Amino acid sequence: MKQTEKPGGAGQRFWDFFASVKLSFVLLLSLALASVLGTLLPQKEHVSVYVQQFGESGARLILGLRLDDMYHAPWFLLLLALLAFNLVVCSLNRLPQTLKLMAKEPAAELKRSRSAQESLTLAGSPTDHLARAEAALKQAVGPVTAGQDGQTRLLFAEKGAWSRLGVYLVHLSVLVIMAGAVVGGIWGYAGFININQGSTIDHLDLDDGRQLPLGFVLRLDKFTAEFHPDGMPKEYRSEVTFLENGQEVEKAVLMVNHPAQRHGIDFYQASYGQSVTKLRANFIKDGQTQTVALAHGQWTDLEGGGKALLIEARPEVNMGGMYKGPVARVGYQPPQGEAMALTAFQAGAKIPMRGGPVSVEILELESTPYSGLQVKYDPGVWLIWLGCGLMVVGFVVAFYFAHRKVWLRLSPAGQGRCKIEIAGSTNKNRLGLTRLLERLSARLKAGAAQGE
Predict the structure, then answer these.
(1) Angle 74-102/9-18 helices, nearest 10 degrees?
(2) Which residue among 197, 391, 420, 444 sits deepest, i.e. has the most Cβ atoms within 10 Å of its Cβ?
(3) Is 173 within the bounds of a domain?
(4) 145, 292: one domain
(5) pLDDT at position 5, please?
(6) What's the whole-number mean pLDDT along residues 300-312?
């Protein structure tokens, strides 16, 4: 006969599993190892990068497991969700008992039997020392609850009950930080822009290849770079202007570790260089030569029909003994037919020209400084900062404050003397409690000596 499972058995096992501290350790260790792996592996690179570094099999494994964008991978988000659920269950599993301890009535603690940790005998009756003992206990611990058991006078005080919530504050901080990371991962974005000096840009090229409108215009007014005597960069800075509806609304200076922000979007100085913006070249067609000036990305009409534009150019390319000098890629649209891309070399260079209806020779390249800016929008960053603040407060509460309870029993000791027993308990820092009880005992002795 099939044994009937007791009510709540499966649910209790499920609850106990997620309330396990061992599970917390395993999840934290897994996330730590994954984070290390994510640091070592290039993130959000082109497939060719992974093929070149790890081979086709390695690249296939990396892409299949989403290790190329690990922090957005389903399995990584699942680990975060499991850790969050584990923290919630652990907190809910222990919080009722903690609240019960915090809410316990002081009167219920008065007659609780505790072994004395300090004991002293003074001349006089318990009544003679009661007011002095109550004052000393209030000064050392906090508000005092008094009671009586026959001829024995009972005093109780406690402080720091709220410190038991420190660990839950740490748990909450972790959940808030994780929530900030999820919010930033879902609704945030990051990208990169290269902007020439004097140019403007109104969109962002995201890491995933999409273009996103900024909602405003960014203009690079001036770029400057300073170098050390050995040629290493000393400082580079971008002076920019933000424009909205054609009006200047804000100016800012970007330097390394000194970003600018607009509408929650952060702009970081990341790189710099020289961008070729114009090309003066000879177009040779059917033995006829014409000199034209081409701008980057802008079509220019040619004599006799057709048009051309500058696609890209490099001031110097070293091709070994064959050629060393500038190289440009020029787009050419003939009067009839399809557009084509032509390669241009320095005029007079002894290098075989490619066949075609048109040959192009470089006469002069005009370049301008450009600034490379890393752009990031993270709407969850305030949650992360809030979580960090909560974590600091939680650790301070958890490590530097304790829930302490102190009992005093004043009972007759015969021959006109009074016996005072001092007991205490704490949820942490027992050495601190011992010192507190010793100071309280010394204060009572000193007070009795002064009263004689």
Answers:
(1) 100
(2) 420
(3) no
(4) no
(5) 47
(6) 88
Q: Say whether both 110 and 150 belong to one domain.
A: yes
Average pLDDT of span 138-158: 93
pLDDT of residue 139: 93
Structure tokens at 325: 């000098």
Residue 349 lies in a domain: yes
* Domain shared by 361 and 294, yes or no: yes
Q: What is the pLDDT of residue 356?
A: 62
Same domain? 378 vs 412: no
